[in-house]
Specification:
alpha+beta; 3 helices; 6 strands; globular
């Protein structure tokens, strides 16, 4: 197995509070997506809703994935004023959150 050079994935699993309305969630997602244009180290952003039939989601309903060129890029993103402002708004609407950063690994067979 070979770890990809430099690339770091930042994954956030979210369960929104019951009182967070669907239109609020849509606006939060749009705000999250805009960060890729505001914070240089953030190279891409994807998101989706849980569609698994295994029922192992533990209440998490949404996944957000950002790609960075390095761990230093993630640190810069976390400290960036645009992220700090957005994170305060976003987290206030969550009941549960889980964040994992990882370096993708390629399986060589």
């Amino acid at each position: 197995m070979e770890e990809q050079k430099g690339v770091v994935k930042h994954v956030l699993l979210a369960k929104f509070k019951d009182e967070t309305q669907p239109d609020q969630i849509d606006q939060l997602i749009k705000g999250y997506a805009k960060l890729v244009d505001l914070i240089e180290p953030m190279k891409s952003f994807h998101w989706g809703k849980d569609v698994s039939i295994e029922n192992l989601h533990q209440g998490f309903t949404h996944v957000f994935e950002s790609t960075f060129e390095s761990a230093e890029g993630v640190a810069e993103y976390i400290a960036h004023p645009a992220h700090v402002e957005f994170a305060n708004l976003f987290l206030a609407n969550l009941e549960k959150v889980l964040v994992i950063d990882y370096k993708p690994t390629i399986v060589c067979v």
